[in-house]
Amino acid sequence: MEIKVTTRQRDYSIFIEHGLLKKARSLIGEGFNVFIISDDGVDDKWISILLDQYPDSPLFRFNHGEANKNLNTYRDILSWLARNRANRHDVIIGIGGGVVGDVAGFVAATYMRGIRYLNIPTTTLAQIDSSIGGKTAVDLGGIKNIVGAFWQPSLVLIDPETLSTLPSRHVNNGLAEAVKMGLILDEKLFELFEGDYESHLDEIIERSLILKKEIVEQDENETGIRKLLNFGHTFGHGYETVGEGRYLHGECVAMGMMTVLENEEIKERLHKVLQKLDLPESCECDNEKVFSIICNDKKSAADGIDIVQVDEIGKGHIERWSFDRIRRKLG
Predict the structure, then answer these.
(1) Is 135 an active-site residue?
(2) Which three-class secondary structure state does DSSP give residue 45?
(3) CATH 1.20.1090.10 residue ranges in the chain?
C-alpha cells in the first residue's frame, strides 16, 4: 500500500507492506552515500537486512531510551557524519522507534542546513504516528522535545514484520497513539479496540497514518488543527519526564488521556480499552513536579495552555486551560 503525503516542504510516499524491508533498496535507490542511524534497542535482524543491501554504508548506533535523546547524542552523530564526509547529496536512514526518528530527523534537518532523510520505523508507536509529519527534536534540561525542527522525510518504509521482535509492552505502548487517533478523529478506529483489535493491526496502522497525513497536510507546522494530535500529551509529557524511565511514551499518553477526559461515559470506555492493552491509567509521581514540567511545555502561553478534550468520540476539540485548572486536575 502507498500513501502519498503532500506538504509545503516536500511531497513523499509512505509504503506499507509485509516483508518490505528486504527490498528497501529498490525503493530508496542508488547513486548516493547512505548513512544509517539506529539504536541498540532495534533487533540486529532488521539492521542486518538493511546493511545487506547497503554493505558499504556507515552505521551509528546509540543507547536506546528517551534519556539518550539529547544534545550529546545529536553532537556525536554530527561529528560522525563530518568524519565520514557526508554531504548534501547523501541520505540519512533512520531505522528504529520514535527516539531514533526524532534524533536522526533532527540531525538531517540541521547537518549542512538539511539533507535527505528516510524513515524506517520498527515500532508500533513510530509506524502509527511519529514516522510521518516532520517533527524532529531532542530533549534538554528535562523538557521533552524542546530543541527541534520541522523536517519532512523523503520516504517512509513500514514493514509490519519488524513488530514481531517487539515485547508485548512495546507493542501496546504504540497502540496508545492509535487509541488517541480514534478518540479525537475516528470513532470506528476506536471501536476496533473495543473488539478483537489484534486481528486488525494492519488496518489500525493504515487508518492511523491516513488520519495523521490528512491533519499534517492541513497544518504542517502545528498552528491550528494539528494541535488535536496532542490529546493526552500535555499531562503525558509531564508524567514521562518525572517518571524518569519508569513509563514508556504511549503509557504516559494513556495516563494523560485519562487525566484530561471529563466525559465519564467516554472515560469508562477508554478505561476498558486500556485494561485490554495493559496500559496504565494513573501516574504515581510528584504532581508538583508534573505541574512544573507542564508550565514549561513549549505549547504553553502566559495565560495557560491549549488542552485537547473529547466530548464525543471522533470529535476532539481544543480548549485553553488556565494553570490553576491544570493544577486542580493533578489534585
Answers:
(1) yes
(2) helix
(3) 168-330
Residues 57-77: pLDDT tens digits? Answer: 999 999 999 999 999 999 999
Quick check: is 220 catalytic? no
Query: Of 151, 149, 152, 147, whose CA–CA distance to 72 is shortest?
Result: 147
Residues of the chain with CATH 3.40.50.1970: 2-165
* Nine-digit cell string for 196: 478483537
- Among residues 13, 125, 138, which one has the least CA distance to residue 73? 138
Q: For 2-165, CATH number?
A: 3.40.50.1970
What would the pLDDT profile of 115-137 be if each residue is shown by its tens digit?
999 999 999 999 999 999 999 99
Q: Is 222 labeled as catalytic in the residue annotation? A: yes
Residue 221 is among the residues annotated as catalytic for this protein: no
Q: What is the pLDDT of residue 298?
A: 66
The verdict on whether 296 is a catalytic residue reads: no
Statement: 168-330 belongs to CATH 3.40.190.10: no
Catalytic residue from among 170, 207, 212, 227: 212
